[in-house]
Amino acid sequence: MNVIIPAAGIGSRLRPHTHTLPKALLHVAGKPILGHILDIITRLDADEICVITGFMGDDVEKYVRNRYSRPIRFVRQEELLGLGYAVHLALAGLDDRPVLILLGDTIVETDLSDFISRGDNVLGLLPVDNPQRFGIADVSDGVVTRLVEKPDQPQSTLAIIGLYYISTVAGLRKRLDRMIASNQKNQGEFQLTDALQGMIEDGVRFVPYSVDGWYDCGERETLINTNRHLLERLGTTESREGSVIIPPSYIAPTATVKASVIGPYVSVSDRAIIENSIIRNSIIGFQAEVRNALLHDSLVGHRAVVIGDFRAVNVGDSSEVGYF
Prior knowledge:
Elements: E1 2-7, E2 27-28, E3 31-32, H1 33-41, E4 48-53, H2 57-67, E5 72-76, H3 83-91, E6 99-102, E7 106-109, H4 112-117, E8 121-127, E9 135-140, E10 143-149, E11 158-166, H5 169-181, H6 192-201, E12 207-210, E13 213-216, H7 220-234, E14 244-245, E15 249-251, E16 256-258, E17 261-262, E18 266-268, E19 273-275, E20 278-280, E21 282-284, E22 289-291, E23 294-296, E24 299-300, E25 305-307, E26 314-315, E27 320-322
Parallel strand pairs: 1-4, 1-6, 4-5, 8-12, 14-17, 15-18, 16-19, 17-20, 18-21, 19-22, 20-23, 21-24, 22-25, 24-26, 25-27
Antiparallel strand pairs: 2-3, 6-11, 7-13, 8-11, 9-10, 9-11
């Protein structure tokens, strides 16, 4: 089995943080999003892992090579032409062994070994309240009958959540090659959903799989919510002399915390400094400084400085906010 992790998105909805850092390396619950994904993937018996990079791809590659000894191949996506195009690039260097595809900005809770055992072609699905925003699957008698990308009038609420297992790789390759050769775009991009629908029309059988949890990291609010959930699952507890740490919270060993109340649901990255502050439900970046502040529902970027009585902030890397 081969594994493809598309991680080339620019993360426009997470600006200003993604002006200086690729989305896959944003921190959540103590490590980058991509780190959570790779920690799961590297435990599988995969023949090859391929990570598709784009904006600041060298930083993504450096992070992976420094932390994972397993060989991982990187493919650069120069043009952001959609998920279908990204998978097409990855398949160009792979054989026709089954492929597991996981999006690089989404954390999925499920038993992947069980997932890939459910059939030759399996799609991870989950009901959503706003199906117009997603690729949607129609299911009948335990089989996926139709896939539509962001339908105006969805017939189902089952969203395709970015987890795919495909044994019929030759069929996927054929459909993607045909789509790109004919410039068949949907909403300005080559959609993987359209290629999979073409496979269904060719007679390929897909079975649905309901995942336990699906945590999007594509916006500030969803990133903070994902941080909250992962900390609850990990049950992380910390202690620092002279401060109160309310679990679940994560504080990196190299972070400094003085005379503060941290938590619940706070992640503090390496070499951050927090003094005389109260922080809850927030993510504090690498080498960030927070002093004399009251923060909640906040993202403080790497090397950012926040000083003063602010309530909720969204501060990008290397920025300064406060009274100086």
